[in-house]
Write a structure and sequence with these properties.
The complex is a heterodimer of chains A (226) and B (256). Helix content of chain A is 81%, strand content 2%. With 226 residues, chain A is an all-alpha fold. The chains are: A mainly alpha (226), B mainly alpha (256).
């Protein structure tokens, strides 16, 4: 894409850089997500008792639920901030397909909230007394599963974009849809069954989410913003 | 020169409701009479479950209705998104609370049956869990209807969510095969014919048809109410913009 001979950055690349900048600057969504994750992991032993054997057994489930909730944290602002400052109208009018814009915004959200959780999960797993195999399982399943959580969440974020207090409704809409991800994620992480089968199903769910959710979210944005 | 009434037209649809509802109400009453007699008095108690088997005659039809209504809602959602038809919006909106109720009935009757038979009110079994998830999705749909003010926009956004949630119905259907655990697998529709006795199948069939006709009756009435509600809304908005002189007219006219 050239204009007056000077090369312009591609719109999607520029959007990604912008979203990452905003995410890092305003309130530091990345660090806050990890902090929230840490708090959830920290309060669990107070609820179930400090027994390390028990914590090790339910550890993968705790980490997955914490990841699910931490992903929800910034989701309500995914499109809302753009709707407020008018960027969303520009997205809707631009030549770049809205589906790709949604995908890039999800990528930015995942890089800021999902990826830090994946990196932090082995350390938090140690606090819960997980063994080496479970640590690998949790990290691998979170790496594959959290993008699906963000993508499914994007549908909820797009549906509730025009609502002033959409955050709670977003969670109500999205959590039931995230159950299959949670089931296979925890199954892969806890090693109750063989690791590979649930892991591959999880990969399949994530790929399906990658292929389908941008269309649903973009459709919701087009209908919700009118 | 119209040979067939166009029921996609709300006024024609209201006429259809006026003609059809007395008929469907009568059919519902007759079917319930026969079905409840067969289910509660005539059919034999199960040799293993005893009298508690009679709960099944309410439980199984509610479970079928829970899924059937979701299919109705998804079809209407498709109509909303593709044709932007106001009647499809009304069909969608009025089906949601009915679906929620039937799903709730299914969960409650299942729980009442589970206590004597399985010794527990609730089991986190695959099929129970997926019906519970369906219930949560229904509640989400009802909540989404309530929070968006503009009816047209609400219909389109709910339609998107309904179709996204429709992914859940195959999961319910196949969950028994995926995680086959405590819940018995399908026994009516399967290869090689039903495995339940005729004396129990017959009341089940009657109850299923009575539930279906109950839903049709309630749904027609709910669609009518929704059409009238929209008409009142539109008229009051017109009256509000025209001046207060026309206000009494609105409340005199909403029926047609």
């Amino acid at each position: 894409m050239k204009q007056n001979g000077a090369p312009l950055p591609s719109p999607l690349g520029a959007l990604l850089v912008r979203d990452l900048k905003i995410g890092r600057r305003i309130g530091g969504a990345a660090s806050m997500g990890v902090l929230f994750f840490l708090c959830l992991v920290a309060i669990t032993p107070f609820a179930v008792g400090p027994d390390l054997a028990l914590l090790a057994r339910i550890g993968p489930a705790i980490l997955w639920i914490a990841a699910l909730l931490a992903t929800l944290l910034g989701l309500d602002r995914l499109f809302q901030a753009d709707a407020e400052d008018g960027s969303l109208d520009l997205f809707l009018m631009s030549d770049t397909p809205l589906e790709l814009i949604v995908l890039v915004k999800c990528l930015a959200h995942w890089l800021l909230t999902g990826l830090p959780l994946v990196i932090a999960s082995p350390f938090f797993g140690l606090m819960l007394g997980l063994d080496a195999r479970a640590l690998e399982g949790v990290a691998a399943s979170l790496l594959v599963g959290t993008p699906a959580l963000t993508l499914i969440g994007a549908i909820g974020a797009a549906l509730t974009v025009s609502l002033r207090r959409g955050g709670l409704l977003l969670a109500i809409l999205i959590l039931p849809l995230a159950i299959p991800i949670l089931i296979f994620g925890v199954a892969a992480a806890s090693g109750a069954m063989a690791f590979l089968t649930p892991f591959l199903v999880l990969c399949g769910l994530t790929l399906a989410a990658l292929a389908l959710t941008p269309f649903a979210a973009a459709l919701a944005l087009r209908n919700g913003a009118e | 020169m119209r040979t067939m009434p166009n029921y996609a037209n709300p006024a024609d649809f209201l006429r259809l409701v006026r003609v059809a509802v007395p008929g469907t109400t009568a059919i519902t009453a007759i079917l319930f009479g026969i079905g409840l007699y067969l289910a509660l008095l005539d059919s034999p108690p199960d040799y293993q479950q005893g009298e508690t088997v009679r709960i099944m005659y309410l439980h199984v039809p509610s479970a079928w209705m829970a899924m059937f209504i979701y299919v109705v809602m998804s079809s209407a959602a498709f109509g909303t998104l593709v044709w932007r038809h106001p009647l499809a919006d009304a069909v969608q909106k009025s089906a949601a609370p009915l679906g929620t109720s039937f799903t709730f009935l299914c969960l409650v009757t299942g729980s009442l049956w589970g206590k004597p038979e399985w010794g527990t009110w609730w089991v986190w079994d695959a099929r129970l869990t997926s019906v519970f998830v369906l219930f949560l999705i229904y509640l989400g749909i009802v909540a989404l209807w309530q929070v968006i003010e503009d009816p047209g926009k609400a219909a389109r956004l709910v339609a998107i969510f309904t179709l996204v949630g429709a992914v859940n119905i195959p999961i319910i259907k196949f969950s028994v095969d995926w995680w086959n655990t405590l819940h018995q697998s399908a026994s009516v529709f399967r290869m090689g014919g039903p495995t339940i006795a005729m004396s129990m199948l017959l009341p089940l069939i009657f109850m299923t048809f009575s539930f279906t006709f109950l839903f049709v009756t309630l749904h027609l009435l709910a669609i009518r109410n929704e059409i009238l509600r929209r008409r009142v809304r539109r008229l009051s908005m017109l009256a509000a913009s025209a001046g207060e002189a026309e206000v009494p007219v609105i409340f005199a006219e909403p029926a047609e």
